[in-house]
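pasting for the record
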Amino acid sequence: MKYYIIAGEASGDLHGSNLMKGLYARDPEADIRFWGGNLMNEVYKANQSGEGLVQDYKDGAVIGFVQVLFKARAYAGRFKRCFADILEWQPDAVILIDFPGFNFRVAEFAHKQGFRVFYYIAPKVWASRESRVKKIKAYVDKLFIVFPFEIPYFTSKGVDFIYKGNPLLDAVDNSPMMKQGREEFLKSNHLEDRPSIALLAGSRNGEISSMMPTFAEFADRLRKIPGYTDYQFIIAAAPARSMEDYSKWTEGREDYLKVVFDQSYAVIRHSVAAVVNSGTASLETALIGTPQVVAYKGMRINFAIAKQIIKINFISLGNLILGRTCFRELIQDFFSADNVVNEVRRLIEDNEYRDTMLAGYEEIRNSLGGRGASEAVADAMIAELKKG
């Protein structure tokens, strides 16, 4: 069967690549065309010849209400290209992965053209823009959810869904970076054998620009405290980024503020603590098992708009899964160098605090449904297509 998959950011590329592995394993005749990134492209090239990648996500990902307005013209061109490509290729299913600002438009188009539409990694309508539930009902043939707290929500809304667990368990546990020893990691990245703190600023330019000034100030302040003078701070940079995205803040700090690309799991795993931009990375950090504090800062106008429409108590998936605070969230004005210093010191120095957090991590892991989610979702999608 022919599958047209659209992922619009780094996390979607990760989930898309694992889903593609499942589709190729379960459907020997799978023919896939996709919008995504390097991870999806690697899976494609291992199973098919030719060019399956239509658009690389790093050329179009934006965050924030204002930034989306600036990108409106470029997005219009991408919609036109995407719609024409789907019509020409005639897939058996259009599979949309998160990225709702773009994918809801695609869902509407594909549905009206008579294509089967599957939505994988549900849009976070339980957090904001609940009106989008109507679009899911109208344009999506089957929704595939990945969080246990989504089950009662979508049930209450009358949405037809399938839950097969969360694919991050497999992504984390099966990653080669989780098997790499600390000595090998340090040597391959030209790092010294010093205690490390992981810094995850996000994958988009806007996130990096918002987070890095405080990260740099935090590193400056912590290393002046007795007992922390030998620490190094490792920025886990997304594969789509370059050194130029970080050099403004690393210049003059090269001795202790390092950048490592495309090895986020290894950076987190070999660090004593992590400061993590909200999102998928915070859940990955919990599954890896490194004590963390979540931090987020955006443009003030975006934050003001978000406060009016977001209706959840936490911004971190791990805290949402538990329904309580497992790790602290420092948001907007609370994301200051002093607050990060205090929280990281507590993660390192307060054994009881750290152990309570790690116990919460185990609860999070146990709630996500076990391994094999990507293959189970691939099985379910194929079954749905055969029924259709």
